[in-house]
Amino acid sequence: MESLLRWSLQHSAPQDSAASDRAPATRQDLNPEIIDMLLGKPDAELMKEDVAAAVDTSKSEDERIAALDHLEMYVFLDPFLVQRITDYPDLEKLKLWEPIQSLLTSKDASIEIRVQALWVIGTALQNNPSAQEVYLSYNPLPTLLSFLTPSSESTVSARSKALYTLSGLLKHNAPAVKQLSDPGVSGWQKIQNALHDPNIGVRRKSQPIQHQPPLMLAPAPPGSTGTPNIALHPTANEPETQQIHTPDTQAASDPVHDNSHAAHLRDASRAQTSAITQDALEKYGILDSVVSSLVSPLPHGVDGENTEADHDYDEKVLRLLYTYTVSCHGNLNDSQKASIKKWLIAETSSTGGVTQLEEKYNLTSVEHADLTSKL
After folding, report:
1. Within 10 A of 140 (CB to CB), how many other CB atoms are there?
2. Do residues 289 and 196 touch, judged by C-beta distance below 8 A?
3. In a domain, 130, yes or no
4. Is the pLDDT at 63 greater than 90, yes or no?
5. Which end of the chain, N or C, is surrounded by fewer C-beta atoms within 10 Å?
6. How far apart are CA 157 and CA 160, in angstroms?
7. SS3 243
């Protein structure tokens, strides 16, 4: 502040003298530190400093976690604002992906630091196909999936954040979904095991296959980027509704900007994950696990002390089954159909009727009818 005051005095004219009364002063450029004080450091510089602090083992754990927490704010992208922005924070251009990813396997990083790193990565991947594409090149799936097995090195928070990160990586990302079946990855089996996690919160957050709607199973429209484009200023003849804007409906002359959604615009087929997921649900017996978790829920809690069903979890399972059978025209075997039908009858009775059942599980009457028609 003292330097700033001195510079200001040197470059200002005395109030009692005219400009012509004194010789022109030699211009002295401001020190960059003073400019940073006035305008603040560029976001890119702050992000680099955060990562440098996060990987610096000489700093305290609290300092490293605080740096990652600060970094997470910069990597968040609003999907409706960045599709045509070319100057958004880019971890790849700043060469920050590798040091952040290294924290997940570093012996010098505590589980708390790893959880914070997972949070940063997961946030950076949300609604950002270009980030998905770059991050996948670091072969992250084995590391991310390793967090899903309960252990002293994988706390409830770590498993939840790993699912959050997997959700961001797998959503509308066919190349990543395909890698779940690669030898040595065993991704589908580990996701299946997450359905039986002792913590009910982790079960609810098994987002790669349970989501509203299931994010890997819901079919994307042909040529769709999977990202809605909001009509901010509809014309008098257009309703104020959300409009889906896909590469097929864009003008042929529209350029593909180097932004967060360039990967989808260059190759719309990468958003098609439905068929891959449907095949995996059947091939790896995940459907059996899903149905079993609905009709015969496993106890949950540290000692398995909670034996009652979890409403939130059951609602997600019903939504998954609806998407699989109705939206994707998947087939259930006779045993699965009988189990679900028996469960629905019992639930209808316990809730007091069909209307109450539909309200409890957030189903419309049409959805309920369509689902039961598949049983």
Report:
1. 20
2. yes
3. yes
4. yes
5. N
6. 5
7. strand
Q: Are residues 189 and 336 located together in one domain of the fold?
A: yes
Residue 71 falls within a domain, yes or no?
yes
pLDDT band at 80 (very low <50, low <70, confident <90, very high): very low
The answer to the question of residue 47 being in a domain is yes
pTM for this model (two decimals): 0.77
Query: What beta strand segments (E) does 249-374 contain?
Result: none
Beta strand pairing call for 242-243 and 229-230: antiparallel
How many alpha carbons fall within 13 Å on the CB side of residue 5? 2
**Residue 203 sits in the same domain as residue 296:** yes
Q: Please say whether the beta carbons of 141 and 181 come within 8 A.
A: no
Dihedrals phi, psi of 326, to nearest 5 degrees: -95, -55
3-state secondary structure of 130: helix
Taking the C-alpha atoms of residue 307 and residue 301, their distance in angstroms, rounded to an integer, is 9
Written as six digits, the tokens of 372 are 């039961």
Contact residues for 255 (Cβ-Cβ < 8 A; gap 6+):
none
Count of domains observed in the chain: 2
Residue 59 CA to chain centroid, in angstroms? 29
- Mean pLDDT, residues 91-117: 94
CA–CA distance, 93 with 130 (Å, rounded to integer): 12
Q: What is the pLDDT of residue 247?
A: 38
C-alpha 175/C-alpha 125 separation (Å) is 15
CB 68 within 8 A of CB 116: yes
Specify the amino acid at residue 128.
N
111 Cα distance to chain centroid: 20
Same domain, 129 and 200: no
Rounded Cα distance, 115 and 160, in Å? 9
For the segment 206-212, the average pLDDT, to the nearest whole number, is 55
127 and 61 housed in the same domain? yes
- Cis preceding-peptide flag for 24 (omega within 30 of 0): no
Q: Which domain holds residue 205?
A: 180-210+272-374
